[in-house]
Amino acid sequence: DQLISQIAAGEVVERPSAVVKELLENALDAGATQITVRLEEGGVKRIAITDNGRGIAADQLPLALARHATSKIASLTDLENVATLGFRGEALASIAAVAAVSLTSRTADAPHAWEIVGSHHAAVAPSSGPQGTTIEVQDLYFNTPARRKFLKSEQTEYGHCAEVVRRIALARPDVSFSLSHNGRTIDQWSVCEMAKRSAHILGSDFAEARLAIDESAGPLRLHGFAGLPTASKARADGQFFYVNGRYVRDKLLVHAVRAAYQDVLHGDRFPSYVLGLDLDPALVDVNVHPSKIEVRFRDSRAVHQFVFHAVQRALSQTSA
Ligand code: ADP
Ligand code: MG
């Protein structure tokens, strides 16, 4: 049973950044508006995430750490209409199989917080703290040295974690985030508009030369900002695409945006952008890969054409 858990964990928890992603999605699912991420040694030593969401009731704490204990699928039809970010009910169990996990949480109606340390077999004990949840993940892969060997340097693992925080913070300007590494605060983003959040994260070059996009056609809507190459330096990490609020790196979408830039601006420089495509969840499958970074559209040609034309039209405003 323990071995099976550890193997399953490898799929969900391939490195510290994967833990950070799952925990941030849980915090957002819980309606948090304030999230603090504290990392030590690239997240391998410690990942601690605190949110002010609705919390977990004392009797639910062991369940949260048990496999397939998701509170997010009410019925089978929900599977096709996954509104919340997580729905597999195995992230926390997988993380607990390969690290030392403690969960402290308080719901609005509880007189105080409760905590559980280690596994779903452990006893729930009284604790303290405000409404919301803190989850601490320590010594990742302490019991699976073979996996631990595949981790890169502290700075590299930290970089992956910070990238995950950036991606999520870019999609949620309505939530404040803070990120620290080895006790030092690295980033702090307060609640603001999307225009401001994207400027904070992508820098002043992007803020000064970009076009706003908001176009709809039938069930499709594209919104966000397309940077202009005149000012924005070409940077490999400045391209962000979201489908229904979820960060994706999808060939079809990247191609559509790139083709639009080439069509209008002819250059081979590829500026920064932050774009969100919203569509009926029934028209897209976001569950093709455990890390959920690729998507499959029911009508990929229509999506490609729509994205291409929307970006093309926005960019054409400048070259007219
Ligand atoms: P999933 O997110 O797929 O349901 P997880 O293993 O990530 O599964 O989490 C298990 C359960 O623990 C969730 O369904 C949720 O009820 C609870 N939970 C986890 N993290 C939080 C959090 N930060 N705030 C409130 N509830 C949480
Ligand atoms: Mg989850």
- Spatial strand arrangement across the major sheet: 5-4-3-6-2-1-7-8
Distance between the termini: 65 Å
How many E-type strands? Answer: 15
What is the number of helical segments per DSSP (H or I, 4+ residues)? 10
Say which molecules are bound, naming each kind only once.
adenosine-5'-diphosphate, magnesium ion
Pattern of helices and strands:
HHEEHHEEEEHHEEHHEEEEHEEEH
Unreliable stretches (pLDDT < 50, length at least 5) are 79-87
Beta fraction: 25-35%
Question: What's the main sheet like?
Answer: 8 strands, mixed
Structural class by helix and strand composition: alpha+beta
Residue-averaged pLDDT, rounded?
88
GO cellular component, one term: mismatch repair complex
Organism: Massilia psychrophila
Family: Belongs to the DNA mismatch repair MutL/HexB family.
GO molecular function, one term: ATP-dependent DNA damage sensor activity
Question: How would you describe the overall organization of this protein?
Answer:
The chain has ten helices and 15 strands. It has helices at 2-12, 16-29, 61-64, 91-98, 145-148, 154-171, 194-202, 204-208, 251-265, 300-319, and strands spanning 34-40, 46-51, 100-106, 113-117, 125-127, 132-138, 176-181, 184-189, 210-217, 220-227, 239-243, 246-248, 273-278, 284-285, 296-297. An eight-stranded mixed beta sheet has the order 5-4-3-6-2-1-7-8, covered by helices on one side. Strands 9-10-13-11-12 form a five-stranded mixed beta sheet, with helices on both faces. The N and C termini lie far apart (65 Å). The model is unreliable at 79-87 (pLDDT under 50). Adenosine-5'-diphosphate binds at residues 22, 26-27, 30, 51, 53, 55-56, 64, 69-72, 86-93, 133. Belongs to the DNA mismatch repair MutL/HexB family. GO terms for molecular function: ATP binding; ATP hydrolysis activity; ATP-dependent DNA damage sensor activity; endonuclease activity; mismatched DNA binding.
